[in-house]
């Protein structure tokens, strides 16, 4: 059933970081540190570098003050320096490359490129390990920072979701450029792809794309950090409630991917998720893509919650959905 | 800090199945089906084939009636047919190969070999997908069998633990034969390795070895299935209690690997674990091995529980620890 | 602030049992036993007697085959024989008494009466302890039946909710007849009470009434059993999903009373809830009633979920809401 | 089986507050506020007044700087002013009264008395409601303070445990003086009571006494606040670990009362518990005392954890156990 002549690609190791733009930098920073529970590891220019307590890299979220909102760029780390070279060769051949950049506070040189919708990606191998100051050293040395228990206290970067006008083109792009696998997708009645979930490793997805109806390119849907237990998601809901954070929908369980989710907007309007996947992993090397039809999606989320309308329309930067 | 001239190996995809021997086949089967919550998918000869509700393969546990207890063999699935050939070449060169077998009810031809302590391994690529009968079809098509909620209702095979006289030799063997990474290990004061945790993918470990003091070769320590939440482990404790299952230790959190654990003995005496890892994954391609000293281990488990004495002595088949 | 000349009333100890009518007796029984996780303790006439594993009485749910659906009657146990006599005197003076009945399979003689909407209540003191057969004996003797882990495996009867045309009259009735306290209520803009939550003990409520817009008297809204953890409610959602049970709304947290809820319809259409209250109790003897306005209720449930329309209309027996 | 000529007593409503003595006042305060998650509501003299976020009274813990450790006194609130008068009359007749005191920052006049071991109790009715400052106002008005999520963030005072040389005398004292019920007890082989659990309301216990082997009178064993979920107890363990708090034993489930527990020592050495009771309540008015034998207790806690030795010896102020 599966093509076994072509071996799976392991060149890209994992999602590394996401750069989020905010036009309310102080409020956004307060949210990410005091409410969401990230830790600041550095500052440079208009950006603050943030990380969850069990992220091993210097940063996984780069929060950048900007005239608008949305995503600056997304970075993936490769499995080796050689794998980075192989990927760059493929991407250059695809004609979507931008070129090498010197790197950032949190990692070494990186190769930048664009997806068909205009989002900026970068690949890098050389990274900077987080070195906790004395006050952040963990009691057990197999976690990367002390479990501080502040706010939602998310554990690690999990995935992001981007909007794109043509998800089918994205599918071809991601499987070729990063060697990603498509674990699940939505097939609309009109023949278009409504959404697509990709992974480069054993996580069930590290990036998802859903269809954008505004015509505005390169928009951002949400970024997600993982917590260890569903109870942490329920607890997060109370923390958001008490801190006046806008809760869009959840907690509930997604039908697609089975993730236990909770969506909020940080103060500048970017959507942020808290999620738990339980013990679910994609260990199977020849995982066949699971395709959901529009009819199936009409049943709502796993336990029947209707998908909230704004989930199909709200992205950043904001934009009007064409009628 | 890490050697980047050698690329990581992705030839082996995941732990596939474990064969457990029992001299109380009916009691063991009752335990695994009614209490632990596995589902029977087939029978052949002296063996019953069992699986957890979200395992994608036909079986992950082969329960075989035998004169004694312990492990029959352990199987790993490779990432591709080509990867299987590559691994066989390496293993044959190591001189520990046994040879090809035709396969089993649950998978195609497999290559068998021995670890330095005598445990039998097999590698295979061709597998048999589980096809749920009507009564076991799930409500959501991205899980592999209906969540039946019977007994502990474990989700998927997670890892196993074997005993070996010389764990250092095992470390060399596993990293060479399977291309496994050593994520954590125990360095004893006497210079020996007390334990070693290996992974071939993003799980923090799929097999562990700990030192055997009996001199008996090829003994088995435990097999573990994962549940989605720590609450499922606590609930399992009540289910074991009410069903008269011997609880050895737990629930508690391991210092090593941070797993939330619960250990019991199935009726024939083989140790079985229920575990939850939370959101912890080894996504980092150049993960540096974490080494625990004897002094550190004396602090007990994560929250201070002393490691129970039988954890260092009880294995199957049973044996006396030499004084 | 509180009237201290009148002492609180402790005559009624707790909600004892609810009789539910079903026109699909076999399907309803399968639901309550195999899916919801109650245990049958007896049968008589058209009724099956059911109980949760930690209910101390013979039964807490009496399931009666009937031409229609809804509630047969609700029973409360008094604190003592003397308290029963005192209550009967009060109720007779109110003019709503029906009279003594001989009792039932699960308890001794009881005094029956009607609330202003026509629901039938009974008060009793003499009860029948549940005596578990050998197969249902618990491992620990401070619970009343073995934790069997079957289906949702609810722990104990928690509360019920009835519909009434005039909730204000109900408030007067309950506080006088049973000596209940009003812990929370909804004050509508039109001056009417939209809902009222009552308790006779330290639970935050054992019965609630909400306004019925159909004009049909004595309708039933739902019955609720408690589980120990919110995780049990989430797990229940998967069990309902896999068993084809209609999920109306949830899991989510109520703003009123803070209960973590999940509502389903059993096969005959009666609404059934699974709930967890956490550690919340009404220990305060002079608890001031908390009043919610319509404006406040428009914010939806605790984390923003809109209250589902059917929650205001669906009751049993079914009826049309007058426009 | 139960004596129904005597009606149950409802004069005492609930445990109100505990005064803890500390010879390390600053460290103890840091522990209770930053780690345990209480909130300071006032200061007077050598005392700081503390409360959990859903306690309705001004304070539930009075932390008093002292030359030693242990308990200052314990306060219970009565159900009414009349009930207070009735109790005082009974206690005076018992000959163990001390007399009226003017009250405290958190409540009005109180009547003080001694238990047979010398611990000081007080009963009061007039209390002071907690009035949250703007920054502590909750999002939902049915909780008494904002859920701040700081540290362990315990919800409400639950119970305390005292040591006594003669627990049998305590049983007579508590049932007479407060009208408490004995829900569970330990009957030693030597005819003595090893422990006794009492309640004045629907909680399964609000105070417990266990036998003291030191001969030192009026010692303190531990104070306990409740959290909503068992997951909160597990999370507390990580918070204690990261903050260098000594964890004595747990998390595990008690056989007696079924409480999910975790015990630590605050910096001055007083034992403090975090606990969750699930949905368990003593609603039954004629609850028969459950008696555990020494043989039964030897099985350890619910899931087999051996009771730690220090649990039988460590109390405050500290003392030597006579051989």
UniProtKB/TrEMBL annotation, chains A, B, C, D:
Domain VOC per the UniProt entry, residue ranges: 14-126, 156-277
Name recorded for this polypeptide: Catechol 2,3-dioxygenase
This protein's record includes keyword Phosphoprotein: no
Transmembrane segments: none
Keywords: Oxidoreductase, Repeat
PANTHER family: GLYOXALASE FAMILY PROTEIN, METAPYROCATECHASE
InterPro entries: Catechol_2-3_dOase, Glyas_Bleomycin-R_OHBP_Dase, Glyas_Fos-R_dOase_dom, GlyoxalaseI/FosfomycinResist, VOC_core
GO terms assigned for molecular function: catechol 2,3-dioxygenase activity; ferrous iron binding
EC number from the UniProt entry: 1.13.11.2
Species of provenance: Microbaculum marinum
Gene3D superfamilies in the record: 2,3-Dihydroxybiphenyl 1,2-Dioxygenase, domain 1
Record carries keyword Oxidoreductase: yes
A UniProt-annotated Pfam family: Glyoxalase
Highest taxon above the source species: Bacteria
Enzyme class, broadest EC rank: oxidoreductase
């Amino acid at each position: 059933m599966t093509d076994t002549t072509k071996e799976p690609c392991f060149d890209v190791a994992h999602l590394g970081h996401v750069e989020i733009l905010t036009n309310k930098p102080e409020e956004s920073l307060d949210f990410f540190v005091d409410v969401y529970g990230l830790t600041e590891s550095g500052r440079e220019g208009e950006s603050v570098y943030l990380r969850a307590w069990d992220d091993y890299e210097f940063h996984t979220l780069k929060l950048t003050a900007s005239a608008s909102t949305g995503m600056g760029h997304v970075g993936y780390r490769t499995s080796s320096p050689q794998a980075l070279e192989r990927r760059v060769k493929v991407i250059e051949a695809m004609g979507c490359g931008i070129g090498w950049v010197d790197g950032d506070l949190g990692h070494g040189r990186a190769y930048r490129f664009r997806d068909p919708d205009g989002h900026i990606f970068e690949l890098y191998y050389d990274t900077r390990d987080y070195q906790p100051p004395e006050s952040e050293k963990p009691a057990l040395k197999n976690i990367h920072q002390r479990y501080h228990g502040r706010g939602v206290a998310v554990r690690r970067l999990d995935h992001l979701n981007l909007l794109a006008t043509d998800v089918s083109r994205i599918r071809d792009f991601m499987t070729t450029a990063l060697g990603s696998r498509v674990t699940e997708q939505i097939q609309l009645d009109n023949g278009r792809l409504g959404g697509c979930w990709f992974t480069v490793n054993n996580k069930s997805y590290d990036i998802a794309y859903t269809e954008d109806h505004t015509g505005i390119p390169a928009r951002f849907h949400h970024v997600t950090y993982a917590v260890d237990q569903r109870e942490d998601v329920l607890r997060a809901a109370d923390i958001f409630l008490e801190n006046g954070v806008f809760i869009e929908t959840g907690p509930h369980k997604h039908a697609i991917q089975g993730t236990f989710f909770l969506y909020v907007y940080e103060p500048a309007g970017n959507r942020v998720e808290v999620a738990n996947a339980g013990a679910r992993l994609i260990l199977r090397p020849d995982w066949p893509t699971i395709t959901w039809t529009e009819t199936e999606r009409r049943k709502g989320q796993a336990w029947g919650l209707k998908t909230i309308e704004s989930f199909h329309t709200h992205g950043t930067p904001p934009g009007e959905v064409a009628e």
